[in-house]
């Protein structure tokens, strides 16, 4: 089918897409050199940086693949073997004493197979169990000599291979992708100075200030221990009980109840290092830094009703989206920016930069773009790569160092520790996906699953028998920043940690109207699920301290009165006044950068999915024209009908229905194109399935293009504006194509632009009209 053949595909994996220029790996061996993999120069041209010119490794090729090649297996044309490499003659029948007799102990082949199977599972991650990952590279725009000696920033155009894993936090390994949750954004840089893991989230702050509270937080949000419900959801009593007793979570809760917690795609969310880190330059000077990843495709989200429906229709929604984009050669991209500031600046601020519940407003410290990250290759094997990858906040390299953030301290301990259980021993760094591209030399020895075979008789230092090797690197190795430490050992918090509401309010004040509506809706949904009235009450008291309107609107949704605000214990507040110092007023009370709308992205369709509804007698020429336009704009057009197979348009060749209304309901699409259908010759408009398909797209504020002046199908949904020319709805487009085969280029391009801009929220009402 010509329409299908026009779909883009990943040049790195041409063979898997049946392309002519495919380079298939030689049978039974590993994939060969990078040169063979990059078939056409098109990849190189498309992805050469406009900022830095030619990059270092082969473009479109990920150098980590090279180190993984030694373990990559391709069984094409090969006979089945045991784990000892013995060819297996019969893989159907166990060895028996007579055909109806007992199975023999002697059957080593059966026993090996079953034994291995019995041990196939490993423990899932305690948090962030559900995730999806991809390979790619980071490319520096410029040398950051003034700030850091960190290897990825050593030269303009320098490329460092990365492996990136996105995740939800609360759900189990098989849970749904579109749960309301924080998303993990973990990047492993395989630098030439060793591995650096930047283990961040898509939200720049956290629920708690001190690692001491992390197990409590996670116990509260995970399924309740007596009955194991609910899965992958914060909408239950124990979560809200805990956070309402921990007012420091007020700020993060605002983010978690916002559309940030239901991203449209992993490709359309920001990433943040969250903690303040340090950058160290060659002179040993330190600057504070916050890390920001900004998606080229912009920051875009789902709406809640849609997220819930997607959960049912495709619980792998984000995993599939990431996979398909990369397979299609539509490589996701982020820009890395830094917020760099000094200790003196930080001293002046009303908040403490060691407090992970606070962000540094961009109005105080603007973002400095320093490079970009592109994901170019899907893993070959989910378990070997995505499941076994071990991110650790303790993995830093020369040029980067920690701060005293008390949350970070706990993490530096936790990540290595948890891998030892999850991956079965202290040698998880030897698993190929975790191994640095630099050779490891030290005197650590043995342990479960050891791979390396260290030579010689020396495994201690100092030694003379090994010529003193491996030797200490001195100044060319990792030197901890000599930060001054003073004071007594005590349990407590610094003064500025006591203020919890200014930035929650800042966030609320910085949201667009639609985003504020969604926040209210999210609190209402979650608290309606909460069964204990006193917990609802306490959350309202917390919200009352953040913003009176917000609290009132949520209370209205719950049929409750707004209680007195929670007491504020911050020094200088009405209760704490005169007790101990005082808290300054916030520097910034509105920050447009905190709205998702602030980063609309490049406006391209970026793999957004456009449904073209078809039936017998449809205007084929118009459908084909829209298909082409969507494809050219970087979208994914698919023909949808009641049943798979051919439909005969009014004129021209038959067209193939690729997806059915039943298997891919409306919530899965970013926009829809409705065929010209008049009331006197009804087709899809008399199908309840088609009507609810379009209703969902309407309700979720997605662009709708009607081929023709009006549509019986749209009218059947009861949507306002379904009459001719849309009645002012900015997301409804009517295109005169009426069988003439010509399309209105202006309407087409406004429709495409609207899809790239994501959602016209003007249509939204609460409750929804349709
Ligand atoms: Fe994690 N976290 N975390 N976390 N975290 C884990 O490590 C932990 C925190 C984050 O894709 C675990 O390998 C503690 C903040 C991501 O594999 C575990 C504390 C941020 C991932 C762990 C935090 C994160 C994890 C579970 C508070 C954003 C997934 C499995 C002191 C900056 C990485 C594992 C991947 C995973 C502990 C708080 C991000 C148990 C103790 C803050 C993205 O070690």
From TrEMBL:
<comment type="function">
    <text>Decomposes hydrogen peroxide into water and oxygen; serves to protect cells from the toxic effects of hydrogen peroxide.</text>
</comment>
<dbReference type="Pfam" id="PF06628">
    <property type="entry name" value="Catalase-rel"/>
</dbReference>
<dbReference type="GO" id="GO:0004096">
    <property type="term" value="F:catalase activity"/>
</dbReference>
<dbReference type="InterPro" id="IPR024708">
    <property type="entry name" value="Catalase_AS"/>
</dbReference>
<dbReference type="InterPro" id="IPR010582">
    <property type="entry name" value="Catalase_immune_responsive"/>
</dbReference>
<keyword id="KW-0376">Hydrogen peroxide</keyword>
<keyword id="KW-0479">Metal-binding</keyword>
<keyword id="KW-0575">Peroxidase</keyword>
<dbReference type="InterPro" id="IPR011614">
    <property type="entry name" value="Catalase_core"/>
</dbReference>
<keyword id="KW-0408">Iron</keyword>
<dbReference type="InterPro" id="IPR018028">
    <property type="entry name" value="Catalase"/>
</dbReference>
<dbReference type="InterPro" id="IPR029062">
    <property type="entry name" value="Class_I_gatase-like"/>
</dbReference>
<feature type="domain" description="Catalase core">
    <location>
        <begin position="81"/>
        <end position="469"/>
    </location>
</feature>
<keyword id="KW-0349">Heme</keyword>
<dbReference type="Pfam" id="PF18011">
    <property type="entry name" value="Catalase_C"/>
</dbReference>
<dbReference type="InterPro" id="IPR020835">
    <property type="entry name" value="Catalase_sf"/>
</dbReference>
<protein>
    <recommendedName>
        <fullName>catalase</fullName>
        <ecNumber>1.11.1.6</ecNumber>
    </recommendedName>
</protein>
<dbReference type="Pfam" id="PF00199">
    <property type="entry name" value="Catalase"/>
</dbReference>
<keyword id="KW-0560">Oxidoreductase</keyword>
<dbReference type="InterPro" id="IPR024712">
    <property type="entry name" value="Catalase_clade2"/>
</dbReference>
<dbReference type="InterPro" id="IPR041399">
    <property type="entry name" value="Catalase_large_C"/>
</dbReference>
<dbReference type="InterPro" id="IPR043156">
    <property type="entry name" value="Catalase_clade2_helical"/>
</dbReference>
């Amino acid at each position: 089918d010509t329409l299908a053949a026009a779909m883009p595909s990943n040049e790195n994996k041409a063979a898997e897409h049946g392309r002519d220029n495919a380079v298939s790996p030689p049978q039974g061996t590993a994939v060969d050199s990078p040169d063979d993999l990059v078939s056409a120069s098109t990849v190189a041209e498309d992805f050469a940086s406009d900022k830095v010119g030619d990059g270092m490794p082969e473009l479109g090729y990920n150098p980590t693949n090279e180190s993984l090649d030694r373990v990559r297996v391709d069984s094409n044309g090969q006979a089945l073997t045991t784990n000892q490499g013995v060819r297996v003659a019969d893989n159907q029948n166990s060895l028996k004493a007579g055909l109806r007799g007992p199975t023999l102990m002697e059957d080593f082949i059966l026993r090996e197979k079953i034994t291995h199977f019995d041990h196939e599972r490993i423990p899932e991650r305690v948090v962030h169990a559900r995730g999806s990952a991809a390979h790619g590279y980071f490319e520096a725009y410029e040398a950051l000599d003034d700030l850091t000696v960190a290897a990825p920033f050593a030269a303009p155009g320098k490329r460092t291979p990365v492996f990136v894993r996105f995740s939800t936090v609360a759900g189990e390994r098989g849970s749904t992708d579109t749960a309301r949750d924080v998303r993990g954004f973990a990047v492993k840089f395989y630098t030439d100075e060793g591995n650096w893991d930047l283990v961040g989230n898509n939200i720049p702050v956290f629920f708690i200030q001190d690692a001491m509270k992390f197990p409590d937080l996670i116990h509260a949000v995970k399924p309740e221990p007596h009955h194991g419900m609910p899965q992958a959801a914060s909408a239950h009593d124990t979560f809200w009980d805990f956070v309402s007793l921990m007012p420091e979570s007020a700020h993060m809760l605002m983010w978690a109840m916002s559309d940030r917690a239901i991203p449209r795609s992993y490709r359309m969310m920001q990433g943040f290092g969250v903690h303040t880190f340090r950058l160290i330059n060659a002179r040993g000077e330190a600057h504070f830094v916050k890390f920001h990843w900004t998606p080229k495709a912009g920051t875009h989200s789902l709406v809640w009703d849609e997220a819930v429906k997607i959960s049912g229709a495709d619980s792998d929604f984000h995993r599939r989206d990431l996979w398909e984009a990369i397979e299609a050669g539509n490589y996701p991209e982020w820009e890395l920016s830094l917020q760099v500031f000094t200790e003196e600046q930080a001293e002046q601020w009303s908040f403490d930069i060691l407090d992970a519940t606070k962000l540094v407003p961009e109005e105080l410290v603007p973002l400095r773009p320093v490079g970009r990250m592109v994901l170019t290759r899907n893993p070959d094997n989910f378990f070997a790569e995505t499941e076994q990858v071990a991110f650790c906040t303790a993995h830093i390299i020369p040029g980067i160092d920690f701060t005293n953030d008390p949350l970070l301290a706990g993490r530096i301990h936790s990540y290595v520790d948890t891998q030892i259980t999850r991956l079965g021993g202290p040698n998880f760094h030897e698993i190929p996906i975790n191994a640095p591209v630099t050779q490891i030399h030290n005197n650590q020895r043995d342990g479960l699953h050891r791979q390396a075979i260290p030579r010689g008789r020396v495994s201690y230092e100092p030694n003379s028998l090994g010529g003193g090797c491996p030797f200490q690197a001195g100044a060319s190795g990792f030197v901890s920043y000599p930060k001054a430490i003073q004071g007594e050992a005590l349990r407590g918090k610094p003064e500025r940690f006591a203020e919890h509401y200014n930035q929650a309010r800042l966030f609320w004040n910085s949201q667009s109207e639609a985003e504020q509506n969604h926040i209210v809706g999210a609190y209402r949904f979650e608290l309606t699920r909460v069964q204990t009235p006193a917990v609802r009450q306490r959350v309202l008291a917390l919200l009352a301290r953040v913003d009176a309107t917000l609290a009132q609107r949520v209370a209205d949704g719950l049929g409750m009165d707004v209680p007195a605000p929670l007491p504020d214990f911050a020094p200088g507040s009405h209760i704490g006044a005169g007790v101990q110092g005082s808290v300054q007023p916030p520097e910034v009370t509105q920050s447009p950068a905190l709205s998702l709308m602030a980063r609309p992205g490049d406006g391209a369709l970026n793999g957004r999915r456009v449904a073209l509804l078809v039936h017998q007698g449809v205007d084929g020429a118009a459908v084909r024209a829209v298909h082409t336009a969507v494809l050219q704009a970087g979208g994914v057009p698919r023909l949808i009908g009641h049943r798979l197979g051919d439909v005969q348009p009014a004129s021209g060749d038959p067209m193939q229905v690729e997806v059915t209304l039943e298997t891919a309901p409306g919530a899965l699409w970013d926009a829809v194109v409705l065929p010209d259908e008049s009331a006197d010759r009804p087709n899809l408009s008399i199908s309840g399935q088609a009507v609810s398909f379009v209703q969902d797209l309407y309700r979720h504020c997605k662009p709708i293009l009607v081929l023709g002046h009006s549509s019986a199908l749209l009218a059947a949904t009861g949507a306002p504006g379904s009459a001719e020319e849309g009645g002012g709805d900015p997301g409804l487009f009517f295109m005169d194509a009426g069988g003439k085969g010509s399309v209105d280029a202006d309407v087409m391009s406004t429709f495409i632009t609207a899809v790239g801009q994501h959602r016209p929220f003007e249509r939204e009402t609460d409750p929804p009209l349709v």
